[in-house]
């Protein structure tokens, strides 16, 4: 294993969408215990530089592996399928319809309670999509289809972010 | 007779092999130094047995035979007699320009601007905030060296969690001036968590609620077997105990039917009395407020309920920040296993009750809120120096404010989002805006808002020597690296040519507390306004790009156009140009669309010509 190893290799886990989050967190802390610059604060400059590079690389892998969307996108990349979210915005009509309904609901939501209801609905939709992603990745091994589902999930996460911004605004 | 020292059984190192490492809380009003001795973290006292050092430095007149300076209690005692040369609250000036210091004219000493940095005019010459802080740090260093009769190996110095890059850098510079090797800068709430967690063997998710005199920090941490993982940090850097005094004073004036107090001395007396009454109300149900306004005595009965009612909005603001940081951490309040109270203002019962009700559990107040930060820093210093037997302590902290870069139209592209675990490196690819562009000006900013103008500018640098290419063809990778102290370095590299530029971000000033507070707050309340502003900026960028592209196309291939066609295109360009200064986003977008439509046939003709030329070129090559 070296700095060029892929995220899954660095964390010593099988490259799959399903990840045991508790084990991942545990592994992250174990790796940082070795690599973190604080562990080498009284070492020579060369060692400190190495520690910094490793610690940064471990944090990079961790933030990608712990986030389901980034993890799925990374799996696609490892299998040679580009996500190309900027150039590929084609989505099924029903999905786009749903997005529009949500956007309207957010615009019209007057109370924090109404926004929270919407947040719950979006969270439920997101959970369903993640379950779908897992089947596509780990059972069907269809990474082209996975890329499409990742793009759809990006829309949903962006919307969830807007809902959250609205909740902040309402001071909740 | 000198006493012989006998070391404790089980202590790993001989006292003379141990490295002397201390934790320093460099505070706005007072500072402390602590160290781990015999396995216990404790604050080191001065010769009079006092652990607190007032953060006050007085410079003496060299002409009058004054010998240098006074630091701490001595300087504090001299402040009334020599206000102009006695510097207090210098922490507020660290990493700032004069304009960024709140109420700079109300300070008792003179602050001037020197190349973008706030500096202080004294009888002994101009002093930078770093120099003044260095006097305080050096005093603590001598105290530690006298305590151990040995040289200092290094120190961990604490900073408020919301401190930006410039303020952290200024703190590090001050330590350097004081001859202190900095093992690490750590955040104050995190230091408090270490002191608390290690004392109590705590496991699980903890909230650190830190309400000081002028600032409020809230951090959420997960503690697991010696690992202190900061999940999120936030707060409101313009909210503290001083605001509670102000609210009480305002309420008293209102109850007496009085307006604002004009006389400065009476105003000062009013605030002093407000603080006294506030503190008394922590132990009594009712206190009489005595002061003088316009020479007439004022007596107002204040009940606890009155105080709580007139400060309820302030307490609510802290809880709004708590909700926000819980959301950032992805943690529900029922998952929080303990709430640690830090800072003198958390002595107010109303705060303890509000926090207790919010989390549904009694907050933890068993540590001295003044000492807890230095005690935690000492534990970390001991571990960093390699003295620690447990060796298991690991701190995984985060960056408090997002870092980004300015893109076209004054928008911020966020590169490192707030609450990213440090150290971290993040890269983002950018491209050029114009054909043949050979340089790229990079502007590094910190903050949560979408517009550059609303964020703090940290540094500017230029990547030069990019080979001329068509707009959008260059691939410039900008990498932000944030080290374990939370300090930023930026590099840029053009991927095709390999041209590179980099900078250690070391500006002469930083964010003011008020600016950060406003920035954080505005990002709560003006998200809507931001979106509208963003839409307008984007519309203008698109319009500019469209006008430039059309003009260059007409210049290159204008011969393809009939005079009437050319006149039509010119009219569309002029119409769009005229809208730019004052038009709405929708109007500009509509005019941009009209120009795009109007130039469609021309674009098709140009494309044909281009393809023909390319074909012709190939034929020549083939021949």
Automatic annotation (TrEMBL), chain A:
Residues 6-78 form the J domain. InterPro entries: DnaJ_domain, HscB, HscB_C_sf, HscB_oligo_C, J_dom_sf. Keywords: Chaperone. SMART domains: DnaJ (SM00271). It comes from the Bacteria. Belongs to the HscB family. Co-chaperone involved in the maturation of iron-sulfur cluster-containing proteins. Seems to help targeting proteins to be folded toward HscA. Interacts with HscA and stimulates its ATPase activity. NCBIfam families: hscB. This is Co-chaperone protein HscB homolog. It comes from Hydrogenophaga electricum.
From TrEMBL, chain B:
The keyword Nucleotide-binding applies. InterPro entries: ATPase_NBD, Heat_shock_70_CS, HSP70_C_sf, HSP70_peptide-bd_sf, Hsp_70_fam, ISC_FeS_clus_asmbl_HscA. It comes from the Bacteria. The keyword Magnesium does not apply. Keywords: ATP-binding, Chaperone, Nucleotide-binding. Chaperone involved in the maturation of iron-sulfur cluster-containing proteins. Has a low intrinsic ATPase activity which is markedly stimulated by HscB. PANTHER family: HEAT SHOCK PROTEIN 70KDA. NCBIfam families: HscA, PRK05183.1. Belongs to the heat shock protein 70 family. This is Chaperone protein HscA homolog. It comes from Hydrogenophaga electricum.
